[in-house]
Amino acid sequence: MSPALKIFLLIGDPVEQTVSPAMHNAAFEKLGLNCVYAAVNVPPRFLADTIAGVRAMRISGLNVTIPHKIAVADLLDELDESASLAGAVNTIKNQRGKLIGFNTDGDGALQALEDKIGSVKGKEVVLLGAGGAARAIAFSLAKAGARLTISNRTVPRAKALALMIEQKLGMHARPISLNRDQLKKALKNADVLINATSVGMHPAVNQTLVTSDMMHRGLVVNDIVYKPIETRLLREARRAGAKTVNGLGMLVHQGALAFEIWTGKRAPIKVMEAAARKELRRKSR
Ligand SMILES: NC(=O)c1ccc[n+]([C@@H]2O[C@H](COP(=O)([O-])OP(=O)(O)OC[C@H]3O[C@@H](n4cnc5c(N)ncnc54)[C@H](OP(=O)(O)O)[C@@H]3O)[C@@H](O)[C@H]2O)c1
C-alpha cells in the first residue's frame, strides 16, 4: 500500500505569480513521493483560521509569503533559530501536530551566492534593503562571516537591522543611507553587492538603485529580484564588467531547503531549477 498523500501549501496574498507549486511538485515527482503542493490565497483576516485548519486537516507543511511572514510566527508552537533571528517565517513543518517555523530565505540566498563565488567569509558585502528578505539574508551572511554594510531608503530600518545583528550575533554591521555618493564610496571597497529591495521588479523593470559607474570589475552583483530574471541592475553590472548572480538561485535554494525540512530527503536542485525557470517563462508570457 502506498503511503497516505501528504499535502503542502503556500499561503500568501496574492499568490497568482508564484512558481513554487511547479518547483515542488516536480521535486516530489522526481523522488516518487506521494505529496502534492498547492498555492492558496489567504487574506490577512483569515490567517489564524487557516493555521487552525492546517492543524485540523494535518497539512504536512507550508510555505508562507507576503504579507504573512511576520504575523504567522505568533500562531506556531516553536520557531527554529533561522526564524527567530530573522523575525519572520517562510516555512512551516507539521511535526506530529506541532507546527514549527523556519526561515530558509537567508540560507537560500547564501547558498546561491556561494555556489557562484565560494565562501563569503571576510568579504565586504553591501546589502540594499532592510525588509523581510534583507533581514534574513543579513543574518545568514553575518553568521557566515561576511562584513556587512546595510543601505536602506528608510535609514532607521537599516540602523535597527544593524543593531539587531550586533545584539543577537555580536557582529558589527554598518548602516548607511541610500544616498548615491555614500553608496558609491561603500561600493569602491566592496566585493559583493546584493539588491534585496523590490526595486527593478516587474512592472518597474527599468529602475535600479545602482548604475554601472558606481561599480568595478571585481564586484559580484547579486539581485534577488527574479522577475525579470535579468534585471536592470544586472545589466548595469555586466556593462561594468562585474560578475552577476540572478535571483533564481535564491528562489530555488530557499525552496530546496524547505523541501529538505519537510521530507528529510536531499532536494533535486536541478529539477527544481528547471521547473522554476519554465514556470517563470510561462507566467511572463
Ligand atoms: N529570489 C528569491 O527567492 C526572493 C525571496 C524573497 C524575496 N524576493 C524579492 O525580494 C524583494 C524584497 O522582498 P521583501 O519580502 O524583503 O519585501 P519588503 O519586506 O516589502 O521590503 C522591501 C524593501 O525594498 C525597499 N524599497 C521598496 N521600494 C523602494 C524604492 N522605490 N526605493 C528604495 N528602496 C525601496 C524597502 O525600503 P524601505 O524600508 O525604505 O521601505 C525595503 O527595504 C521582492 O522583489 C521579492 O520578490 C526574492
Range of helix content: 40-55%
Mean pLDDT: 96
Alpha-beta content class = alpha/beta
**Beginning-to-end CA distance, first to last residue:** 42 Å
N-to-C series of helices and strands: EHEHEEHEEHEHEHEHEEHEHH
CATH topology of the largest domain: Rossmann fold
User: Number of folding domains?
Assistant: 2
Major sheet attributes: 6 strands, mixed
Q: Walk across the major sheet and give the strand order.
A: 2-1-3-5-6-4
Low-confidence stretches: none
Cα shape: globular
Would you state the CATH class of the largest domain?
Alpha Beta
Catalogue the ligands. Answer: NADP nicotinamide-adenine-dinucleotide phosphate
How many strands in all? 12
Quaternary status: single chain
CATH superfamily of the largest domain, please? Answer: NAD(P)-binding Rossmann-like Domain
CATH architectural designation of the largest domain: 3-Layer(aba) Sandwich
Itemize the secondary structure elements and their pairings.
Layout (H helix, E strand, L loop, with lengths): L5 E7 L7 H11 L4 E7 L5 H11 L3 E4 L13 E2 L1 H6 L4 E5 L2 E5 L2 H13 L6 E5 L3 H12 L3 E5 L3 H15 L3 E4 L3 H9 L3 E4 L24 E4 L8 H8 L3 E3 L2 H16 L5 H15 L2
Parallel strand pairs: 1-2, 1-3, 4-6, 7-8, 7-10, 8-9, 10-11, 11-12
Antiparallel strand pairs: 3-5, 5-6
Helix pairs in contact: 1-9, 1-10, 4-5, 4-9, 9-10
The structure holds NADP nicotinamide-adenine-dinucleotide phosphate.
